[in-house]
Amino acid sequence: MKIVVCVKAVPDPKEADKIKIDPETKTLMRGDVPFVVNPLDKHAIEAALQLKRKYGAQITILSMGPPAAGNIVKECLALGADQGILLSDRDFGGADAYATAFTLAKGIEKNGEFDLILCGMASSDGATEWVGPQLATFLRIPVVTMVNEIHENADREWLVKTAWEDGYRKVAIRLPAVLSVARELNEPKNLSFSGIIKARKKEITIWSISDLDVSPESVGFKGSPTIVGDFGTLETGRNVEFLEGTAEEKAERLVGILIGSGAIG
Amino acid sequence: MENKNQSGAVWVVAELKDKSPHAVSLQLAGKARELANQLGVPVEVVLLGDQVSEAAQVLIASGVDTVYLGESADLKVYQSDVYAEIIVSLAREYKPEIMLLGSTFMGRELAPIVAARLGTGLTAHCIDLVLGEDNVLDQQIPAYGGLISILCPVKRPQMATVAGGVFPTPDPDFSRSGNIVEISVPENMENRARVVEMVKEESDEQPLEDAQFIVAGGIGTGDLDGWHRLQDLSHALNAALGCTRPVVDEGWAELETMIGQSGKMVSPQFYLGSGLSGELQHMVGIKGARMMIAINNDRKSPVFEQVDYGIVEDCKTFIPLLIEQINKVSKDKTL
């Protein structure tokens, strides 16, 4: 089985609130927030590893990003993937979800045959959830999003389960296909020391625009149908009153406010 | 697909809940009416299902001029390939200017497929839609401590998803008239991802949307143990428990309980946020709350710019203390 897992290097979600827009210059102030593997993508990698253990599989990690995203791809190799590809080129920069999915699709096509593509259902920074389904559309294959159970079999039609409004749904999907996965799917394992040692020998492949069958107009900022317009602020019209004193006094005052609002009593 | 000089309609891809239009579809019909009036174009809806003509009447009463109605047993539940194919063919034929979908489970899967096939842009989980210069839709999303407007200046239709509760539900006016255009649904359409089961499950948790009192927590709750204390607090207050995205990512709470731009939009009487930093993606979901209180150990946290009362304490130690005090008061009352 050939599996491609798409991953994204994102600013560490635990520190993401440090990233701000400078209200004056309207530029992004990244601060010193480190890049990590997008948390949901780890569940996609774990799903691929579980399939590999059962059936044997060749797992390719595919990412698009700046050269520094190569470290993220290497981390995925240390988790047990076999091959890593980073699509990296200035022309790929400034891509929206559409252009990202298009470029990833071209990378997958260049890499050759595949049975399954896995990705996290959303990135922690963009959070559009569009890349999985759009990737499938560009590759002309079916997709199921928000997958929380995979019931694979030896046939080419698998059963997957997803959350759905007020319940769940089960979908029979024909391979090759894209599954964008939810956190509930599995419990990702942490990096092991032996994995890190083994991954040292693995090289990642870097493809630039000249390696893909694309024009500069179809990728990155130029290939993106959407653009970012103005930045604004959101006025809440609320003025904070801090409750002061010892912790006990604050709790007492808060209880008073809660009684006043009808939440207690 | 097409370039922008086609003055098309404002479209909503409607969704059904049982046999009635989903609340978010009616809210989008209301918003579409407003945008269409400004553009001088009609509001049109695509409605797919099995025996759903009554729902079409409700949509017309909510401001829709034309319903493209696809009725077939094959359309009874959402099927991605089939629904996408019908919507894409209709859009190619009628060339809408704007296409809106709910940020529902269906919308989140269907919208990106349709957008990719039409070769156009799609903005996720907008919190406002405003016509700007040259009638380009200013699609506002919260990000990085502010509001960002996303534009799709050239490609058409301009597509966006919006969560339920962002726009008000219009009052239906059943004296309004509109057209129903029945579309023929071909048999044996390609369906590579076949929904074989759609099951409803009862939940015993208090639904956030209807809750009068909400306790919400962020990553600053600390750990799973801290999260359980917050759960205890919500029980002590008989409040619904909500959370931010990082909490869902950590696995402490279900996606269904996430409040904000891509989650639930709520308007409780009272909201208590603990261990969260005031990220706009979360805060836009509760701007309708009557009273807001935040607990955070950093006096400079942006959350304090967005609430009525602030408490600077570490929630790990403060929440148990608060529960103790509440229990004391409740006990006094029952004596």
Which key features would you list for this structure?
heterodimer; A: 265 residues; alpha/beta; Rossmann fold; 9-stranded mixed beta sheet; 6 helices; 15 strands; B: 335 residues; 2 domains; 7-stranded parallel beta sheet; 5-stranded parallel beta sheet; 8 helices; 18 strands; elongated
Total individual domains of chain B: 2
Kindly state the number of beta strands of chain B.
18
Strand order of the largest sheet of chain B: 7-11-6-1-4-5-12
Contiguous uncertain segments of 5+ residues of chain A: none
Shape of chain A: globular
Query: How many angstroms does the end-to-end distance of chain A come to?
Result: 61 Å
Helix-strand makeup class of chain B: alpha/beta
The CATH homologous superfamily of chain A is named: HUPs
Strand content of chain B: 25-35%
Largest interface: A-B, 82 and 100 residues
* CATH top level label of chain A: Alpha Beta
> What is the succession of H and E elements of chain A?
EEEEEHEHEHEHEEEEHEEEH
* Low-confidence parts of chain B: 1-5
Main sheet specs of chain B: 7 strands, parallel
